[in-house]
Amino acid sequence: MDQAKQSESVEDARIVLGLLESVERDGAQSQRRIAADLGIALGLVNAYVKRCVRKGLLKVSEAPARRYVYYLTPQGFAEKSKLTVQYLSSSFSFFRQARTECAQVLAAAKARGVKRIALAGVSDLADIMRICALECGIDIVVIVDSAAARTDLTGIPVAASFDEVAVPFDAVVLTDLVDSGETLQAVVQRVGAARTYVPKLLGLKIYEHEQ
Hints:
The chain has helices at 3-25, 31-38, 42-54, 74-89, 94-111, 124-136, 180-191; strands at 58-63, 67-72, 116-120, 139-144, 152-153, 156-159, 171-174, 196-197. By secondary structure, the chain is an alpha/beta fold.
């Protein structure tokens, strides 16, 4: 991809992410307000709203006084999470934010008596989690990732599924940066919401623990 197309792609992702975040905060606000917040033309907001509705990311209902209220669909929440990760990953602030949030997640887990954890997803976030775990005294016993083409990550064993994990663990921390929404569902079904921890930067709030 040449530089011009890459810049266009980044700007497109920025607008979609901004739109989804804006609707999540207040689905009843006007498109004019959204345009002002995102710094783009009103007509462009209208085009992006229609596109997101067509793609199933947003739903719309009519309100009094010819106004409309927008809602994020489950697919919209998943897309917002994906775009958040992509946007952060491409910025220099990713490592700093990820390190801070990994430390917060592990501190919250440790306060609840967690000593041994599994990670769900081989990624840069998993590597940052590994560093933070060493610092706070929590053991990462395994990383589960069905798509990983490796058997370990810096000495930590990698398993294709939880069925392959023979060692005990107290909780699972989500570190998948590709299909984080689907992985979260699978983890919660496997170990329960109470034993599942999610860094805030993934944008998945349903099963987050208060930190």
